[in-house]
Amino acid sequence: MLRKTKGLFLVVISCFLITSCDSDAIFDQYKSVPNQWHKDSIVSFNFKAPDTIQNYNLYVNLRNTDAYKFSNLFLIVELNYPNGKAVKDTLEYKMAAPNGELLGTGFSDLKENKLWFRGYKEPFKFNEEGDYSVAIQHAMRNNGDVDGVENLQGITDIGFRVEQAQK
After folding, report:
1. What's the superkingdom here (predicted)?
2. Were both Cys, which of 10, 50, 70, 78 would link to 135 (CB 3.0–4.6 Å)?
3. What are the DSSP calls for 5-20, one per residue?
């Protein structure tokens, strides 16, 4: 038990040091998922547009454990603009290699995934000044099932990140 606690402490300290030295991050926040992520549970983040001139990259960040049993992840992500416009996407992310090994970074059974949301195909600009919000919900299903997975296990934290794009 002491070994696991010491390992978790080192992971937390490493993440803190890595993120504290990150000058590209404009917004970077996580919210914890208690035990399981219910299919109706929406995780929301609110942030202010940094400017309307620069290009930005937007990411959904996830932390998961080896209790995550799927090779992919489907998310519904909605970006709400200050003046009422909303853009909703259903996105699929690869979460495991063909051999079943979970993707992401991390030294223990806790993996961190930085998943593209906006800015990867074409530059993303905040074209409206003001307050934005992002809502994230899982849309996982077992093969052959019509109904979604009610409680998704293995996801511990959901985050959202805005960084200034490299020129």
Report:
1. Bacteria
2. 78
3. HHHHHHHHHHHHHHHH
CA of residue 115 relative to chain centroid, distance:
6
The distance between the two most distant Cα atoms of the chain, rounded to a whole number of Å, is 51
Asked whether 162 and 56 are in contact (CB, 8 A), the reply is: yes
Q: In whole angstroms, what is the distance from residue 120 CA to residue 147 CA?
A: 31
Structure tokens, 121: 């195909």
Model-wide pTM > 0.85: no
- 149 belongs to a structural domain: yes
Tokens for 150?
Answer: 């009610």
**What CATH number does residue 115 fall under?**
2.60.120
Alpha-helical segments (H) within the chain? 2-20
Q: From the centroid of its chain, how far is CA 145? A: 25
Whether 13 maps to a domain, the answer reads no
